[in-house]
Amino acid sequence: MPRLTHIDKKGKAKMVDVTAKKTTTREAVAKGSVSMQDVTFKAVQANTIKKGDVLGVARIAGILAAKRVADIIPLCHPLNITSVDIAFEPIQRKSCIDITATVKVSGQTGVEMEALTAVSAAALTIYDMCKAMDKGMTISNIRLVKKTGGKSGTFIRDRYP
User: Which residue in 29, 49, 101, 152 could disulfide with 118, CB within 3.0 to 4.6 Å?
Assistant: First the structure.
């Protein structure tokens, strides 16, 4: 059975020591969605939300969040991230915007939390910028879909239940 790496022998929380870990290229991809009313979806697409360019600001928020994970998740290591890409896919038939964050690093630990946090911050920013028009938006299905590099190798969500 796998053991929790952030727990010491006495059951207390600890930061994992990655000193001896090999530096490798690592990548993580996370996804999530923001569902909204059709009128809100159309306004985002037309860039007529009063607060401004919703997806542009959400992209910057996602990038910034990925770079600041160690400041908000207590046991995460500060990482020298080498790339963050935030992509949006508007799904008209569902009035939702799918968000994908891809984060890369050459380091001793992975960037899964950075990708998940980037998606979360981008989704929250969409909500914040559109809430005056639609307080009923739903942020959902935030999940890791792929991770490569490091000792544990590759994870692809489609291969797991």
Answer: 101
